[in-house]
Amino acid sequence: MRLLRSLFVLFLLLPVALPARASETPAEHAANVYAQQELDAAPLHEDIPDYSLSPEDLAKAQHLSTIRVTLHFVDEAWGIISLVLLLWFGVIAWIRDRAVAVSSNKWVQGYVFLLYYSVLGFLTNLPLNLYAQHLEIKYGLSVQSWTSWLGDQGKAEGLLWAFGGLLLMLLFWIIRKFPRRWWLVFWFISIPLALLITFAVPYIGHLFNHYEPLQQSDPALVAQLEEVVRKGHMDIPPERMYLMKASEKVTTLNADVEGFGSSKRVVVWDTTIAKMTPDEILLVFGHESGHYVLHHIEIGFVFTLLGLLITFYLGYLFIQWALARFGARWGVPAQTDWAALSVLLLAFSLFGLVSEPIENSFSRMHEHAADVFGQEVIHGLVANPQESAQRAFDILGKVSFADPNPSQFYEFWTYSHPAIGRRAAFAHAYDPWTPGMEPKYFKK
Length: 444
Known about the structure:
The chain is mainly alpha-helical and 444 residues long.
């Protein structure tokens, strides 16, 4: 118990402690101050000098920002409320009874229960998901047909049922075998599983999008990306650089590095190539490269595992309390009952409310570091790194109708990246190559 308390404190302090270790350079500090002053000088949700929209697009950005924040909190609240209601009115227990009645074989019971539960979850979340997709189409962020969208939803649910069923069977076997230490045993087993999922991400992507070798369509861009790869000392050969046909579904932009080991690859969206210059694409790719070079993947993996350990332990405590208090009312007699899955998921949802700003603070810290790396790694490869970076963020924001100056509370609580206006202003001001300054990651 004392160990868990120490881990919980470490989990809370990690986003604060890590920035202290990776202290700001003078050039970084000056650019951060400049960006904050630019945001403070402008009214909330209005244009700033380094990222401004047309009056029509600004109105769209403001409207979308309000709806997105509202949907975010409504979705979180509904996830908790719907679980409580389904438990309270005996729906989860009814599903359990149907699954148990099908067969005495636990594998059949587990997969049938998860099938019913997944369908029920899909239906309860469908109105919000439909509205979110409607907004994406209305504002031109998505060009995906409803048939294609529903197909992707079906694929995701199918993967969840197939592989989630294996996890469900493993979890409940461990609960039966180690009733008081299942949270610790399952956590240990989750470590190689998380590594496997990270490795498999590039392969899963082919189920939802079309890819082709980037060398086939844009050999000139491949040559430029290779320069960034060499400067960042990454091992990604040209044959592992791909073009994703994102334009079949969305109008937004991206480029990233995904997977690890033999599955690691570069992916550039065709929308990015269509709307950005090569210099701006190098900045976006340089940012994503920074996550690998700065070991954000490994650090994030450790952070996630630490969070999972605490979450599993709190889930164990919550189940003991909840079943003792409400188990009879819910029709869930013990933690070995299939219906206890929903009680565990309820615990995870409640803990997620507390951990969300912590996780987002941690994420923003890494995203900012990757911005710095991206701007430095393209120095000498493009004519003007500051201008290329500022333009890249300006384009990224305009394409997605990003709020130029959102509430700093919303940014703190819900943003996994710094606000796009903050990033554009920082990029404009960040110049570590002036006399008296020093780059953070690429020394002069």
